[in-house]
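Notebook entry, structure prediction.
Reason for the run: the old model in the group folder had no record of what sequence produced it. Starting over properly, with the input documented here first.
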Amino acid sequence: MCKNHTIPEKNTSKGEKNIHDKEHSTWNRRSFIQALGLAGAGGIMLGHASIAASKPSPLSVALAASENENILVIIRLKGGNDGLNTIVPVYDYATYANLRPNIRHQQSNLINLNADFAIPNYMSALESVWGDGKMKVIHGVGYPQQNLSHFRSAAIWASTDDINVEPTGWWGRYYEDLYPDYLINPPEVPPAVQIGSIGDLIFEGNDSNYAFSVANTEQLANVAQNGVQHNVTDLPDCVYGDKLLFMRATTNTTVRYSSVINDAYLASSNSSSYSDEDLAKQLAIVARLIKGNLGTKVYMVTLDGFDTHANQVDAQRALLEDLSDSIKDFYDDLAATGMDDKVLTMTISEFGRRPYENGSNGTDHGAASPVMLFGAGLDGNGFVGTHPNLTEWDANDNLIPTSDFRDIYSTVLTEWFCLDPSVVSTILLNQTYQTLNMGITCQSLSNTDFSDTTRFVHIPIYQNNRTLIEINMPNTANVDIRLYDMMGREVGLLENKILYPGKYSIDVKEKVKTRLSYGQYIYRISTGGQFYSKSIQIR
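New structure, fully documented this time:
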């Protein structure tokens, strides 16, 4: 039977202990990076050849040149938030009340934002946010022919494609172009941090998910406070304890960015007294990471429970109270260090709810719903767009959207992150969307024309028991393609010659001229001074 075993502490000074902890933190991250062939600062060794940071591609230059200090926080209201009971249309209160005799807000329980729209009084924390000019509301957000499935609609919001099943997300495509050699040379800080779900499609590229993701706040808090996910002390002194130690230590070393998150967290503190509610805990950690200068540009947090088919009044109230109080505390916290004007927060939800209540004191899946923006970087409070007509519904009895969610994405990328419109079009699947007057204006947008930027496209193809690398050459150049195992060891040279414009297929097993075991590998292409890497399977 296993007995608890506590490792006695050495009689060391605080300074010695800090050095000891720092060494372990450094070793953990370094061992993981070396094990997977990933680069931190200064490059790594692949196949005994030194690999340094590569020259950026034209599109990467366009993206990097537009980078600024601004940060985006996405709050996902998971389940489909009822917009009519969040931003109440008091300009037509009679129609609203008739549609919802049991779940409507009484006028005496509303706080007017202006003569036409109000919020329920339990969202009173937002009254001062609105009054201070740090809140805007975009009316009737959705997309044509709303798909009423939670999963599919969430995927549409993440991928921006409401017609095809697109496997990548809008931020995944952004980071894929910014970091084309991500598997070999990832950036020093996590491109994105996501709390509340693992691997959201928003951050999914063709080959990598670019978010440091944790399932819950406690998991991130543990990483932030300790630099690791699991305790490796106080384990049972037996074979089981030894195995548990091995698994926990292995898991700890496979969290790529644990140490940098830990450093940022410890470098700051919260200045607001957040509640113990779900969203509050998430935003409290995000605030510390931002104030600790982590350097991550995009954060995504999740507040679940908005699928209010029944007993909506109490359920939505608890969620919206958490949202309102947390936003107020979050921006008060950031303001303490003067960072509140650098952080834009945006709510998203896969769909709204029906305009009328159902028989269970709730509402069913709908379409249009408001998006709320928060931040001192806005040019004051206000409403954007036109509110949907309460008496004009689509074929499914849903409000008809008046604003496309992709217009919001396009505006955020163009006006908040100062990306050139042609680059934004590439990120949004070669579609051009309207720029909304959301109260954000880029002051340093480059005048450089990137409209003729060509992309080097490469993908693995599997057919007829063959593993192929398909590349599309935009111009004539020498191309070097090498295959590596997951430990970063070179397996073989696949190609090294001048290729002319056009499409080519490289048969991996035929070219490598050595027997390959089944499993995962990495191929790396060098052309035009740029590196591209992607994982590939030998089947």
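Summary: The first helix runs from residue 14 to 36.
The old model has been moved to the deprecated folder.
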